[in-house]
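On clarity, I found the account of how folds are encoded harder to follow than it need be. Since the whole study asks how a given chain folds, the encoding of that fold should be made plain. For illustration, here is how one protein appears when written out as sequence plus C-alpha cells:
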Amino acid sequence: MKATQNPPTTGMVTTADLLRMAALYLRRHGWHQGTYYASTTDILTPPACAAGAIRIACAGRRIEQFVQLDSDALTDYVTALDVFVDHLDATAPMFFIDEDGYLLDEHTSPYSWNDDPARTAEQVVTALEAAADEWDRLHTAGGENR
C-alpha cells in the first residue's frame, strides 16, 4: 500500500452489530406492536417491532416478506433473530402452556414478547442491546472475532 492510500475502514458486520442497529433504529424511528411496521405509506422509516427492526438492519430497508431478502440478508436475519430469542429465553422466558399443561413452544416468541401489552419500547431496545453484548461476549476476544 502506498503512503497516500487510505486503508480500508470497513469490517465484517457481526450479528451483534445488526442487533445494535435494530436497537438504534427503534430509538430513532419508534417502536411498534402488532405488526412488523406501523401502517403508513408516507414514510420510509416507520416505527417497527423488534423483528421488523432486525429485518431493516439486515436489509437496509423495510422488508414485508422473506422473499424480498437476498440469501445473505435472510441468513443474517435468521441468525440475529435466533440470538435475540436465545437472549429472551435466558432473561425473560415467556412460554405458552396448553389447557392440559403441555408446553406448546420451547422458545420465547419474539413476536409475543414484543406485543405483550405491558412491554415498553425501552425494554425492547435494552433487550436487543443486551443480546448484542452477549453475542460479543461469546464470539469476540479483545474486539476481534474468534
